[in-house]
User: What shape does this take?
Amino acid sequence: MTTSNGGSVADREIVVSRTIGAPRELVFEAFTEVRHLSQWWGPAGFSTKTRSFEFRVGGDWDFVMHGPDGTEYQEWITWSEIDPPERIAMVHGESRDDPNAFASEIVFEPAGEQTRIVMRAVFPTRELRDDAVEKYHAIEGGEQTLHNLATYVAELIGKTELTGEEGH
Assistant: This one.
């Protein structure tokens, strides 16, 4: 059982970031539209199957991540703040009422013609953060997830260039 007196935020958080070679609007779109999310979300070797998706404040994304070893991970995200194309805040757990759910903030910062994305997760306790890091390799998984996003967005740009669409 988990208590909620978790200590300082710094002791309970994980921060992962990456610069992606695409405009902020496209990166935000890839992060907020289910047709894109299901193509890249998750660490290396994982796939995602969406059961329901409603991108709005108070809306949910109910999905299953399939691990490379066949393990299924029930996942639930509820969007708590949406400020396109700058920021998203959400609560992420195994289900709507998961007592171990953690808060996440994703910030999309312009970096010239690229986008710097910062994902910050704050867990209810330091122990839950440590479990996520040690048992589930959350830092590596977050980095792999952002790598997948960067690769996917690069493919989108390639497809756009091939079809002559500017995406503006």
